[in-house]
Design a protein that fits this description.
272 residues, 14 helices, single chain, mainly alpha
Length: 272
């Protein structure tokens, strides 16, 4: 509670850092803030061409199936990699003035979250133009959209926990910044973004590992991705087990990240 009170007291600093991050993200580029929408669209086009046309994916409206999972993933991976250097990037401030050190990863993750919200405008536009793919015999349930803010908050907590953990560790182990780039690339293929989780479960059963399918759901981004796809692609209310799994993993990683950060921050000044 004391930490929350202190963060609230420094809320203006968080708002200022978020605005600075958003303004500086594409500062100096010709298209400027339009890259917020262009980047995910270009990635969508590449993956859609490769998997729909070259590899022959038979998923209906694969572009939407991919897009509703890709945008949240970009937010998470950006929070993990960019947030990892948030303390190092502000080392002069950290060494000279006092403020809750958690502010730096919080500001970075929040700016990335705002960026994701803007990208969702493109998702909604794609949904309106192309429509969704509800299961046979069912229709899109607009009440499913009421669950969208919930899964967004859960993912925000997960991303913040990851950023707190990696930002603290990177101060002591600078190579982690580069390792995370490779780690997130591998993590993406272990998450059902380019495919449905049923494909992995079927392969595990085929190879006699059906009893280990629960391990796949320990990936915190798996239930989050499934929930996004249930809401925006199928137009269904996510299963309570999916939401519960996502919430428990998200909150668990947030607690782990916070406790680790609090312990590691004691040596920040000396390491920086």
């Amino acid at each position: 509670m004391n930490t929350l009170k202190e963060l609230y007291a420094y809320r203006q600093m968080i708002f200022s850092l978020v605005k600075k991050e958003l303004r500086g993200r594409y500062k100096g580029s010709v298209l400027g803030f339009m890259w917020t929408f262009i980047n995910p669209l270009l990635q969508l086009m590449v993956y859609a061409v490769v998997f729909s046309f070259l590899l022959g994916s038979n998923v209906p409206k694969y572009y939407l199936h991919l897009f509703v999972a890709l945008v949240p993933w970009l937010f998470f991976s950006s929070s993990l990699t960019g947030g990892s250097v948030s303390i190092i990037a502000s080392k002069d401030m950290v060494k000279k003035i006092y403020f809750p050190r958690e502010i730096m990863p919080i500001a970075y993750v929040t700016s990335a979250f705002v960026n994701m919200l803007l990208c969702f405008l493109v998702i909604f536009a794609v949904m309106l133009i192309g429509g969704t793919v509800p299961p046979e015999g069912e229709v899109f349930h607009f009440t499913a959209l009421l669950y969208l803010p919930l899964i967004m908050v859960i993912e925000y907590l997960l991303a913040l926990g990851g950023a707190l953990l990696t930002s603290g560790l990177t101060v002591y182990f600078r190579d982690l910044e580069h390792i995370l780039g490779i780690l997130t690339m591998a993590w993406m293929y272990l998450t059902p973004i380019l495919y449905a989780p049923s494909l992995v479960e079927a392969k595990m059963v085929e190879h006699g590992m059906g009893h280990l399918t629960w391990l796949y759901w320990l990936n915190p981004m798996t239930p989050i991705t499934v929930a996004y796809r249930d809401i925006l692609y199928y137009g269904q209310i996510p299963h309570i087990s999916t939401l519960l799994n996502a919430a428990l993993l998200g909150i668990g990683i947030l607690i782990l990240g916070y406790l680790s950060f609090r312990k590691l921050q004691k040596g920040f000044a000396e390491e920086l």
